[in-house]
Amino acid sequence: MKNIKKFIDTKLSKAVSLKEQFKVLEKKDWDSLTVLLELNIQLSHLYNVLNSNDAINEQGREIDNLGDEISDVLLQLSYLSYLEKIDFSSLDDYQNYTYDKLEGISVLFGQLTEAFLEDYDYRFAKSRPGYSTNKEFITDRIIKMFIIVSNLADKYNINILSEFDTMYDDATNFIKQSIGK
């Protein structure tokens, strides 16, 4: 929990800044659903690193850096949080949330996707016991995903702050090269 608090305090604004820099390469504006799709891609990369197998690997593409993939997931979660104006003041309420299994991210991601599809009127809205609004449910799922990713990083001895800085530098250089600067 300590690592994710520190990440949110020190890297969240840096993540938003990086996503804003990427806009020069995007052909369309991104909304929360687009970020959710990108989050799904980054989660699949995370799965790929931890479950690499020739039967599912994309040929000719090396996806093998766990720290980088965790950073990419944190980047998308950060931007989604920014777009949705997630308030992290309740983070201390999750002190005892210690879940660290990769499968849990899939379950939460499915629940999060369903809630967004309801917000965007693609699915019928339903009540969720224990949550007074869909926004409250979305906030809970995003916070839990942040924590699980942080717990996974701890489990595999990944320093998310350092790895995120490395990914940030690589991405910034990629953007500069792509726009010819």
Would you mind describing this structure in some detail?
This protein has 181 residues and is an all-alpha fold. It has one domain. It is 64% helix and 0% strand. It has six helices and no strands. It has helices spanning 2-21, 32-50, 66-83, 102-119, 134-155, 160-178. Helix 1 (2-21) crosses helix 3, helix 3 (66-83) crosses helix 6 and helix 4 (102-119) runs antiparallel to helix 5 (134-155). The chain starts with a helix and ends with a helix. The mean pLDDT is 94.
The total beta strand count reads 0
What structural class should be given to the helix and strand makeup? mainly alpha
Rg is 16 Å
Mean pLDDT across every amino acid position: 94
Outline the biggest β-sheet: none
Described by the principal axes of the CA atoms, the overall outline is globular
Q: Work out the count of structural domains.
A: 1
Q: Count the DSSP helices.
A: 6
Task: Assess the beta-strand content as a share of residues.
Answer: under 5%
N-end to C-end Cα span = 39 Å
How helical, in percent, are the residues? 55-70%
Summarize the helix and strand pattern as letters: HHHHHH
Regions with pLDDT < 50 over 5+ consecutive residues?
A: none
